[in-house]
């Protein structure tokens, strides 16, 4: 009833207004401008270079996955996008697991525990949100090198998990503070230790918010270029964004250079699109929460 | 209660429980014993943050006072790196461009996003489609978007020039990324295209969070829709509008991927920005001390803006 009311009333303002066609025009043109380049990207993966360059608006004449297979295997291009895809997937999953474990432990302690340094830690985390990651790059490059973790997915994972941790900890802390404490107290009386309570009671009921944190973070990890560029110099440890940024097929081996480049871009984009349509609602609310970063 | 459990500032008994005075020993020991499990909880995160965030940050500050090629000895040069920065034309260009980025891009994304958010919240026909269309690019990786647009901007066969020549406007065809008067504008179009959906989705959530009875009250007062937008919606979403603006400014200040993929700072440094200049100086020219000085400036600029923002917004309390 209320929703109906609202719809009727809200429809009224534009129906009566001379601005209505302008607003609709802007929305429709805008939506086309937003979607067309992505459509263009996907269509170009099925075209030859000549078609891409000379008839950019034509639809592909054939829908073969040849370009995808070529970049995925890398046999002819020397660019092994299957490998890069796997690297990216590994880094994303490892970063999320590590970051969520350390962040929820830390956030839980900050919400429940009374210990000297708790509020100092909170202040420090707030401060660290304001630090641009670029300002860490030079020492990190040498430090990660000293640890022997340059050109290693482990090194990249540690860096990503650290960069994402402060924000995740602050949000997890806020969540745990709102979580009723009674269940945990009951378990404590039954002789459960702090860690036991966390693992058996708190973590299972917090699956939702923890998954929400994963959704907030997954996108930037999948897209991250700067640290990957600095830390990953060897070809076979590249992540997808780095491999696309440095795309340069071996000369004279392939005639469809552009088509393959578009296929590589599609390989990075299609999982994102699938995720978007599967988790649209969660992503939107996660982004909204993330906006208060 | 909580205060009483804390060690008094005059006593170091928190760190050294055995040395506390006899009067305070009992509660402190008890307290330490109680606190110990919590320290184990925060240990992994704290260690990682100390090693990979706090230490590099301090080391950047230190390195900015040195001359260092990455290998061999580091030579202390005091503030000479900063003096050199002061006279470095490319640095000033980079700083200027970063600020242009941080003003122009958020101006367009936030105002367009606000327009879209309002329009979609009024449930215009097809609102679900607009919401999805404007949001999809937000999800895409910056490198893919930059590469895609670089191809579309290409002079001979790029989409834009093909269209312009096709409709007889050859004169408007540009060397989008190769002309120093146009390149910065071209590069800035890309994040505007990509991220307009972000303020849209956040502002939409804020608008939809406005309680229905406030709308009803306004309706009863007989407001028209302009008054509803300017008098009711805008004042109520002002905090969210402010934070999304700040966030966009901070994001634009840190631009890197786009510049690397599309222009490498050129032509003639017309698209040079702080993040890319830092990268070039340190990791391409191998001048790590001077690069650290650029990093320090970038840190200070971003930190001042971002810290004001972090203080201004209470992250925990925002709920829509």
Written description of the protein model:
The complex is a heterodimer of chains A (293) and B (320). Chain A is an all-alpha fold. Chain A has two domains: 64 residues, no CATH class; 166 residues, MetI-like (MetI-like fold, Orthogonal Bundle), CATH 1.10.3720. Helix content of chain A is 73%, strand content 0%. Chain A is built from 15 helices and no strands. In chain A, α5 packs across α11. The two termini of chain A are 36 Å apart. Chain B is mainly alpha-helical. Chain B has two domains: 62 residues, no CATH class; 236 residues, Orthogonal Bundle (MetI-like fold), CATH 1.10.3720.10. In chain B, 70% of the residues lie in helices and 1% in strands. Chain B is built from 14 helices and two strands; from the N terminus they run ααββαααααααααααα. In chain B, β1 and β2 form a beta hairpin. In chain B, α2 packs across α14 and α9 packs across α11. The longest helix of chain B is centred in the N-terminal third of the chain and has 42 residues. Chain B is flat. At the A-B interface, α1, α2, α3, α5 and α6 of A face α2, α4, α5, α6 and α9 of B.
Features:
heterodimer; A: 293 residues; mainly alpha; MetI-like fold; 2 domains; 15 helices; globular; disordered N terminus; B: 320 residues; two-stranded antiparallel sheet; disordered C terminus
Brief digest:
With 293 residues, chain A is an all-alpha fold. In chain A, 73% of the residues lie in helices and 0% in strands.
Helix content of chain A: over 70%
Number of DSSP strands of chain B?
Answer: 2
Whole-number tally of structural domains of chain B: 2
Number of helices of chain A: 15
The CATH architecture of the largest domain in chain A:
Orthogonal Bundle
At CATH level 3, the topology of the largest domain in chain A is MetI-like fold
CATH superfamily of the largest domain in chain B: MetI-like
Characterize the main sheet of chain A: none
